[in-house]
User: Fold these one by one.
Assistant:
Number 1:
Amino acid sequence: MNASYRIGELELQSRLIVGSGKYKSFEENRKALDASGAQMITVAVRRIDLSSREHGSLLDWIPPDQFHILPNTAGCTTAKEAVTTAQLARELLDTKLVKLEVIGDTRTLFPDTTATLEAARILVADGFTVLPYITDDPVACMRLEEIGCAAVMPLGAPIGSGLGIRNPANIRIILESVSCPVIVDAGVGTASDAAIAMELGCTAVLMNTGIASAKDPLKMAHAMKLAVEAGRAAYEAGRMPRRLHAQASSPESGLVDLS
Amino acid sequence: MLNGESHSTPAPLTVLELLQRCELAKRRVAVAINAVVVPKSRFAEVLIRDGDKVEVIQAVGGGA
């Protein structure tokens, strides 16, 4: 059993944070959430459809009194939009949490670092617990920590790409450069990607498409739960040194003469 | 303007009255007028003026 950790004022056990996009139904989303063991789930805020009244809502399936809801500012391309979106989400969900995203390029969905820093400054001053999505840039992460973000969330690879942790060396440098939680956000495609992030020493992993777009999302949610737990346990255990050459693990003396 | 669509009403409405008209008063929503958030506690008193841009939002599925 992995020990608990903190993000801002929250104490959490599960080191897997999941998204709520791309599921076929609210029911599938909830089942995957349960299979993942995650305690925190991201949501987006969007205009309500005024033409159709009754089609249920996400929060009927994922009640805020049972899970930590982490609203995101996905789709925002300016600091101002992101700040207002975070403030709307705070009114909507009675939460100080925000997954800050300010997208700098709509094709690659890479973050706009300057605008992310600007929005983070405003939101921290406004009392938010800010979890910013950012490139795997150690200096940007250091600046975000200095501003007062509760965690930094470098991408492993582009959002929705499933390419895994493309630059583990940078993630390691980030882990050495900040003392706040480091959460890999985006890029995790399968269980081994999540395990690699955790083995590097990340506090947690956030993923959505890796689970939701698997052929069997429920089974993948379970696989991700195990991978995150295994990766964390391996990090805490401390891996053996890598060696170029073989080293027998059976005794070299007392060999039986069978010639 | 309400969620990007033009609407007209015979008399000025408060935010609460607007939500009641749209059958949204009991739903978990948040409201911004001209890109400024209206606190829930002020829904009954804040009046929507002619030409205001009103956004009514809810939580939806999303990751990033």
Number 2:
Amino acid sequence: MTTIDRPADLPTHDHHDEGSYLTPRGGMWATIWQWASTVDHKKIGVMYLFAVLFMFFLGGVAALAVRMELLEPVRQISNTLADGTVETVVTGQLFTYDPENIAAGNNVYNRLFSLHGIIMTFMFIVPSIPASLGNFFLPLLLGAKDVAFPRLNLLSWYIYVVGSLFGVAAIVVGGADTGWTFYTPYSTTTDAEHWRVFFIVLAAFVLGFSSILTGLNFIVTTHKLRAPGMGWFDMPLLVWALYSTSIIQVLATPVIGVTLLLLMIERLLHIGIFDPGMGGDPLLYQHFFWFYSHPVVYVMILPGMGLISEMLAVHARKHIFGYRAIAFSSIGIAAVSFMVWGHHMFTSMGELAATLFSALTFLVAIPTAVKVFNWTATLYKGSIALNTPMLYTLGFLFTFSIGGLTGLPLGALATDLHLHDSYFVVAHFHYVMMGGTVIAFIGGIHHYWPKMFGRMYSEKWAIIGFVLVFVGFNVTFFTQFFLGTQGMPRRYATYVDEFTLLHQISTYGSWILAAGLFLHLFVFVHSLVAGRPAPPNPWGGLTLEWEAESPPIEHNFHKEPVVRHGPYEFDKVVPPHCSEEDFPLPEQAPPPPAPKVVK
Amino acid sequence: MIQSLMTTLLPAATLAEVPPLKLVDETGNMTSGFWEELFFRGGATTPVAQATDGLFMLIFWFGVFWFVLLSILWIYWVIKYRRRPGVAAEPSASHNTLLEIIWTVVPSSALIVLFLLGFWVYMDKQIAPSDAIELRVSGWKWGWKVVYPDGEESSWQLPLDEGNTYNGGAGVPVFVVPEDTPISLRMSSQDVLHSFWIPDFRTKMDLFPNRYTGYTFRTPKLLTGQDYQDHWIFCAEYCGDFHAEMAAILRIVPKGEYVRILGDEFGADLSPVDLGKKVHAQACASCHSVDGSAGTGPTWQNIYLYERKFTDNTSAIGDEDYLRESILVPGAKVVSGYPNQMASFQGLLSEKQLEGVIAYIRTLSDRYTPPPKIEGEGEEGGEDGAAEEGAEADPQTDPQTDPQTDAQTSADPVQDESETATG
Amino acid sequence: MTAIDANQPPPADLDGGENKARWEIYAHGHHWRNAEDEFESAKFGMWLFLSTEVLLFAGIFVGYALLRLKYPEAFINGSAYLDVKWGLTNTIVLLLSSFTVAMAVRNAQLNQQLWLKINLVITLICAAAFFCIKIFMEYIPKWTEGKRPGVLFDYPYASDPHEPLWWGLYYVGTGIHALHVIIGGGLLLWVLVRSYKGIYGPKNYAMVETSGLYWHLVDLVWIFLFPLLYLIH
Ligand code: HEA
Ligand code: HEA
Ligand code: CUA
Ligand SMILES: [Cu+2]
């Protein structure tokens, strides 16, 4: 536990008179302009939050359509009419504008799942937590006034907007049918006469810059803007998570950048680097693509894990177990994640490479396992409040563990040859992305909602929403594991009759899931208009953001905070703005302070 | 090299220990429990597939173990330590290095075993035994073609069995393979990527336009009273509009039936001599040489119009009638110096094939005067595939025929070795 | 991005009536504790950004290496087509510009306002020279001869089927680099313009230094491209 005196060189001008960052200054247009041109990380974070949730909504609607199409296998029934003419009817195909022609329907389906995958990965999940909650809370967690480069931050927000607009534009004119992986040579030849694919790839390319700049910004912020007294191991674990995420973003994104660039040039000029017809090599593309796209899955999950660590500690009122283990495992994951990309290509690469990548893949599971074990140990002897954030935290532990464990048969060579590109994979990555990242994200929104908007949400309805989401999610995707092992390939618009039942269950599940999510949406809207005002520290958190007002003032803190205790010492410190009877301390003095290692 | 390394690391016994290796009894019914049923319907019928399922179930139970363990802790502690107003959490340790080490080391070592087993079974899918029949598979948007060792091509379109409306009830191509035989696939694509997945055999590989990939599997024995067995083939790599309809059926038939079908149905366009040559390769070559060298049975060189001496000291001229008789009733005249052990080919060879064999044997004799030659042999490396593409403007061409792509695959051993899967 | 606060007119309390140069009354960003932190962060940020740039080009180099391994002849012919003379000139030009930009930073630190401008101007001239040589001496002649990338290729005397591929890589590699030359030049031009306002000096030269760093990267990448494309036979 660190105690230091305020260094002499600290600026001492305070921000007493300031109001909340939300209070509009001037008329409507003035306010709009202030938001559009703001360099305040909080406003940018909020704008990101709404943007990514909107993208989640778009992608989700596409997903529901995908599930609708899969409700039934496509049947083409031709029966002879009284007058002898034969009429052909296609049933079970949602998108039929030409009954004679299954391809037309398939094509729509292919565009739908590509659209879904592209939106969800590039426009939603990658920016989701870091850009929204991360932007808003990183400086608060560090006790800083802003991120290192506020203007750069605004720039990356606008790059994100431009990129998304490209994407949406491409979708409006018909979208792409490439899948989110853009495998060549299909992606360089399909829709040859159209610009759609080009624009979608361009969108992903542009979005890459946004995430590079955000990552860069976060790294520098973490290095240079920690509050006085905050050593590396006094940082909240969310900061560690965001930090490792940023490292991956900065190191991996340039590679996808050049890959997509080459892809675009390929489509325009057919220079042939990925085009086997001209001596290029599709496998090279896959290597490039996955060199980015595997590390990026940890860009997706690490911030979620960070949120889990925070929520777990605060709502269990318990010192996070094995702080260093969790912090280092974040870095460990970041490091190893660059060495396993080949596990997406077991069915296309040689034995030697495949063996190597398989071994490394098992290695990457370890640090995650370590995290899970430490989180579990954190629950022990806690004082656990079962509110929405905590429920989502527990939900995360369940679903993410399933998702992660099903990564193991995919990492084992023999089984992956069977499971690759089957619904088992689909189930796996939804369990980690939807069941991991998104669940943590929704929980995190609830956890930080009072701080961001200064209003409480309706606990009752939020919990109902959680139950719907949790049940719906599992019904939707657990069935897909069996689809996969039984032989259902992914990206199939129609399928063999055997699979009908499981597909139907999955589709019904997606409706429950959707209901839950929409309920959450309404809960949030309701809270904004009619929620009761939130106290500065409703959960009794110890990290610096809870010292600020809810919602925080323009410059976050009235006085620059100085760190006097570790982020999780719930057994030693009464939380700021809180009374001892709400958050009592243990009577007898805690065991003699463990070495500073312990956090 | 890796394999030898592994053999030292991991005695062959280890595989046998993978529980439950035997998912299917000889009648093909699942001997296994609820979860196996859910995961793998009918279950696996080939050793490698069974090993795969075994490994999968092993990993599955491994996961279940940890998951249940943790779930119990989560639920139990959440209930036990739920928040009570005004009550503080009892102080407890905030870290424990020993624990950290344990729960890092224990899973790690377990994972190493899983990796090795995965590698082990994988190798069985990749390394083809020397006696495997090599089928050349080519895929295109959207169809499959299998070319048999001697250039026959499957010409069957099979209407799906009653009530199966897959692909609008339209037929899918059928590829015939003999039962209980090792098969190796040498695959390449004519346009975009595809992937040749046979779920029942638990393995797949992607098809590339510019390189050969492949894998191997052993076909199961037909069950008693079963005259054929069908297995789905799906395209597992996204390839466009009909990706979902790019299926085929792998039909497993008795060995003799296989020979017959290849000769009669698939090899229809061959000249009698070539047909005969093929039948020889498939059915006779093991005993009868064609170059005069000795074998289990007499060589075929210079039989026709030569005099044959028999064990019963009679003799005859090796004319068509003699040949036909020797094939259908081998015991009738046994060439001296050879045991009477050849089984009759009555019913195994079609009339056409019989003719072919005889025609072939004739050509092997220097007393034979050839008639005007008949054209026919020679496989077009999937021109119909290219045709299928129609307007689809695609620079790709079939590796078998395209010199350029051939050049690539052979030109550079480094890459072949490192990036081409065995085939 | 960091020195911009110097744009604002000097707050009265800082400028005690007598008019100082902009750099003297430079106030660091409001969210920083002090100017050193801000300055170091700016540099740190730029280094991070440069690392991403390096990785971006690394991608191209890997592609180059693999394809060269595959088709040595095509690449050897290809580089034979290139004119080492111009390649070398451009290399020298860039090295010179790297030197002058380094000097410019020094001038800023020592408050040699005139030399600062002169060095920046020289650097910009070099950038322009490099660019013109690329366009007029390299791209245009080759393009007109039909030495074009991929399907556009129609050079009658090609002796290897994969030369279009080589040209593809050539244009992509040098093209992306040329793009960086433009960006870097733009940055330096901006610095030059602002240097006329006397914004840069001992207390505030982050912008000069960071854009200088960027320019060094442009140089560095070329140092790799030049031998790979022109020299290795
Ligand atoms: C959030 C994103 C995310 C995360 C975190 C992960 C995590 C993991 N993934 Fe996943 N993966 C994806 C997203 C993700 N994946 C996506 C999107 C795809 C498909 C891309 C496409 O083709 O479209 C994919 C595909 C994919 C494949 C390729 C499948 C194929 O196409 O053939 C493989 C193969 O190895 C794999 C493995 C793993 C492993 C081993 C982990 C590990 O990191 C998991 C570690 C976690 C645990 C192990 C569980 C928690 C720990 C415990 C409960 C303690 C007990 C555990 C042990 C003792 C081991 N994933
Ligand atoms: C973050 C990533 C993410 C998320 C969250 C989801 C969410 C969902 N996904 Fe998907 N999915 C992918 C990433 C994701 N997916 C990817 C990468 C692919 C591969 C694509 C490819 O093959 O190329 C894929 C593919 C994929 C397939 C396979 C298609 C095929 O291979 O043929 C299916 C099929 O069932 C599917 C279904 C779903 C469903 C039902 C959901 C549901 O969870 C959706 C639920 C969401 C909603 C119903 C919208 C409601 C939201 C709001 C109301 C907004 C407000 C919310 C709050 C305020 C909290 N997805
Ligand atoms: Cu062929 Cu998918
Ligand atoms: Cu991966």
